[in-house]
Amino acid sequence: MRRLLLATGVVAVLSALVTTAHPAVAAPAAPPTVPERHLTQKIDWKPCFPGKLPDGLPPGSERLECGSFTAPRNWNRPNDKIDIVVAVSRLRPAKGEPKGTVLTNPGGPGAPGRTLPLLFLQQNRAKLLDAVEVVGVDPRGTGESSNVSCGGGANIGAELDPRDRSQGNLDLMLDSAALTARFCQTKSGELGRYVTTEQTVKDLDLLRRLLGREKVSYVGYSGGSWMGAYYATYFPNRVDRFVLDSNTEFTTTWQKSFSWQPLGFERRFREDFLPWAARHDAHYHLGTTGEDARQTYERLRARLAEQPADLGQGRTMTAVGLDEVIATSIYSKALFVGLAETLTRVRTVVEQPGTDQARAAAAAVRESLDRLTRSALPGVAPFPADAEAATSYSIRCNDTPTTGDRASLVQRSEREGRKYPLIGWWRISDPCVFWKRPDVHMPTPNGRNVPPVLMVQSVNDPATPLEGAKRAHEAFANSRLLTVTDEGDHGLYSTGNACVDDVVEKYLVDGVVPDRDLSCTGTPLPEPRRAGHAEEHVAEPQGVNPLTLNAQFRRLIGPMPR
């Protein structure tokens, strides 16, 4: 689980401990001096897909252009003449010149973002795409930019069950977190010290200058809200219109921001998914109330902890694997149907071993897991990209302090696990507690001297819960909060909610700043599939997660040119 949700900023976070606020830090210094060799470079834009367009991409994808530029490895010593490469993309209007530039980020922290402009094509956001150029970025450390690595050490201990509170298992989990920190810092070398939000926002401002813009706009999802808030803090005079969607508590530490997640995941599970499954008990037979369905999960998990289920072809379903499937699937209501079907089938495999029904259910589970892998969030197990994982660890372990030790990790995970059992037990696992943090001191974002920023947030977001977003909103001056009620999806703009899209684009394209906080209503939950309806032929409901689509595009495309 710790590795499963890493790149979305979820359960690497689950290991967060007792937190402290930022130390008092002065406002950012004057903009960095940019060496002439960087200012005079030109981005050599070329088609990202010069041959046949990969299957599965939306119409217009042939317009996506790729390029790269160099930046100092250490912006605090730019004259060392040690550079990195930052890979970027742009999607310009089909007709005419763009009226502005919108930088984008899919979150993580650490997810590559060069494919993110394709999201707005796929969702047919014509108003946006006809007006501006949308720019995707693989931040330093990840994607086709200069990479960091954990050398295969990002998933150490991922199979260990945090509910096993035997001293031997606890020691293994703590040792695994410590070893992960050592692997990532050793294998990433000197570059790993400079994979921070401070360094990255300076890369972005160099990109702004190379694009010839006095100001830029921005759309950042999830961990991208953190990056957007920091860019605005370092370069307030360069901010045009910033949209921060599904917000971290970016006005505190990474540790504190992620400490909301056990509450968020548990609430999404109990208030949204389980009651929905209970309403459709005739299809899934998990229980007629949400609590009945939760107890079915608990019994199934206990059986899997005793004996993993054989799915055939050398694959098994473990208790930890079941938790991973649930946590991954509740990001978006579009995955609820598949999750309920998987739970029903795993139950059949466990309760009817050796039968034809169990063999058929096991085959269906394998197919469902393969689909989930293809459509999963960036970096989600079972195949997390090493650079994504290493970048995610580097950013959140380098940016802000992490407090705690082995004893406090055990104590906090015990408290959180009993209260929020879906992922609370995973608070034991935090490599940042064992990280040798470099000397990084970033100013706390407060919104002062920053133009109005629009924050978008669902009330039952599991990964970036409302509580943290509201605190960030209250602490970030002149921000506006668009709250989406009756909603728990993570990532909201450009997902099919007409109200959200309208508010965002009036602000982002037309420059209409809401004069107060606003609210929209969420989109409906899905209906079960009809009996005999092949899964691959059923259209997903509205509300597809932007991070999911970005990950799908990256898997379809593979490496892209610099």
TrEMBL record:
Domain named Peptidase S33 tripeptidyl aminopeptidase-like C-terminal: residues: 427-520
Annotated region described as Disordered, given as residue ranges: 143-162
Key words of the record: Hydrolase, Signal
Pfam families: Abhydrolase_4
Gene Ontology MF annotations: hydrolase activity
Residues making up the signal peptide according to the UniProt record: 1-26
Alphabetical list of Gene3D superfamilies matching this protein: alpha/beta hydrolase
Family the UniProt entry places it in: Belongs to the peptidase S33 family.
Record's protein name: TAP-like protein
Source species: Streptoalloteichus hindustanus
Species lineage: Bacteria, Bacillati, Actinomycetota, Actinomycetes, Pseudonocardiales
